[in-house]
Design goal:
The chain is mostly helical. The chain is built from 6 helices and no strands. The chain has one domain.
Length: 145
């Protein structure tokens, strides 16, 4: 369940990095500063935490009951969704496996937003080198023709 957080963080990182790559220039220093600003990062954590809280409230029990009918039993003869009660939510399942799930989820979000700032900074510094490498590769391929 912890890896579930990686998807939204990756999506935000890529959405910020791709416009810069498409323009062949480093990310705007204002964007990099924002992504490295602890106040901005905490705001992002707050938004993501609200989103994740809403997702954790999604009922999963009825879905599991329907899946139980469609999925064969495990090799040990047990029903694959037998741990899921009809009124369980995603949050119930996450907390059952890890009682500290909510705290760890927010900690991972904080860590992820800090990593986004680092990635933006480093990507901005690396972009000129990547562009030069691409130009060298193109010249070498043109020489083959």
């Amino acid at each position: 369940m912890r890896h579930f957080l990686a998807l939204p963080l990756l999506a935000v990182s890529l959405s910020l990095a791709m416009p810069a790559a498409a323009q062949d220039r480093a990310p705007d220093s204002e964007v990099i500063e924002k992504l490295n600003d602890p106040v901005f990062q905490e705001g992002m954590v707050s938004v993501m935490s609200g989103f994740m809280t809403a997702m954790m409230d999604l009922p999963i029990g009825q879905f599991a009951a329907a899946m139980e009918k469609a999925v064969p039993k495990n090799s040990d003869g047990r029903e694959p969704f037998s741990r899921i009660r009809p009124d369980d939510t995603l949050g119930d399942l996450a907390a059952r496996d890890n009682p500290n799930f909510n705290t760890e989820m927010e900690d991972k979000m904080r860590e992820g937003t800090a990593i986004m700032g680092i990635m933006a900074s480093e990507f901005g510094a690396l972009l000129p080198q990547l562009k030069a490498m691409g130009e060298r590769m193109k010249r070498r391929m043109d020489d083959l023709e």
